[in-house]
Structures are given as C-alpha cells and as structure tokens.
C-alpha cells in the first residue's frame, strides 16, 4: 500500500492594519478618548502636530500643513493614526 503525504508549509505573515486617518485644520485641536489610560503618545513629525495626554484622553493640535503619523500607546497596545493637516476646509480630502 502506497501512501502520499503532501505537507504544505505556509509562512505566517503578520500584516499591520492600515492606520485610520484623522483630518484637521491648521490651528484646530482635537481630543480623543481612549478605552484605557494612555502611557505614551509619539508624533512622527512634531512640527505638524503637537500631542499631549491626560489619563485616557489625547489632545492633538494642528500646527502646520502636511501629513504625519501619531502612535498612541495604552496597556491594550498601540493605535496608529495618520493625521492630515490642511490649511483650510477646501483643502480637506
């Protein structure tokens, strides 16, 4: 009796979810409420967006036109946001 066994090995690929986008106007502030206390906030380009944290809240201030990524760290993990800052509402996507 002849038996054939085929073993297919598929490497596991971890795909990071695409960051959510937040649109802001220069000079405006947005406050986000997170489900858990925020331990850190990192801004890829701090010349475009200023970030501060207070408990479960994160405040973002749009400083200049452009796009940057903000990473919010909580005990549950990291949440990434792509922040687009426009000069006026007519420049919004």
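^ structure tokens above, recovered residues below v
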């Amino acid at each position: 009796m002849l038996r054939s066994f085929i073993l297919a090995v598929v490497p596991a690929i971890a795909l990071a979810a695409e960051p959510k986008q937040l649109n802001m106007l220069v000079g405006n502030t947005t406050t986000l409420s997170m489900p858990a206390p925020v331990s850190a906030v990192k801004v890829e380009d701090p010349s475009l967006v200023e970030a501060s944290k207070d408990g479960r809240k994160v405040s973002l201030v749009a400083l200049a036109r452009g796009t940057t990524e903000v990473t919010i760290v909580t005990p549950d993990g990291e949440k990434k946001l792509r922040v687009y800052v426009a000069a006026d509402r007519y420049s919004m996507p």
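Residues 1-16 have pLDDT under 50 and may be disordered.
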